[in-house]
Structure formats: C-alpha cells, structure tokens
Amino acid sequence: MNQKQDDSELTQLLKDQGYNDDEVRRIVARLRRYEKETRIDSIMDSIGQPGFDLDALIQEALTESGD
Fold it and tell me: pLDDT tens, 3-37?
C-alpha cells in the first residue's frame, strides 16, 4: 500500500468514527509525525546492535546518485 491509499483508508476510518474534517487532518498529521519519530528511533536503536554495519550504510549513501 502507498501512503496516499493508507491516508484514504485512515481518513475514512476516522470519519466513520465521527471525527470532522479538521480533526481528521490534525490526527493524520500527528500520526505522520509519530511514524517519522518511530522510524528515527528504530534506526538509532539499530546502530548499536550486532550485525548493523554503519560504515557500509554510509558508503552506500555516499555512492548513490543524488536523485
């Protein structure tokens, strides 16, 4: 699923629960911030784990084209 489809399904779920358009917009925005924070926390937690090769990830990032 892509984010647009996820947002559409989430929007419909929230509307079905009785939230108005402004409340839905605010809830979706907060969930997106939470999702971003969670990913960053997950990455930071992974850095200290065995098997995580930070140097390889850095080299990969530096050799990728700058889309």
Answer: 677 788 999 999 999 999 999 999 999 999 999 98
Beta strands in the chain (DSSP E): none
Secondary structure element (H or E) that encloses residue 27, with its range:
helix 21-47
* Pairwise CA distance, residues 37 & 4, whole Å: 19
One-letter identity of residue 20: N
Quick count: other Cβ atoms within 10 Å of Cβ 10?
15
Q: Report the alpha-carbon distance of residue 46 to residue 4 in Å, rounded.
A: 28
Is the pTM value of this prediction over 0.70? no
Q: In the numeric block, which tokens belong to residue 33?
A: 């911030």
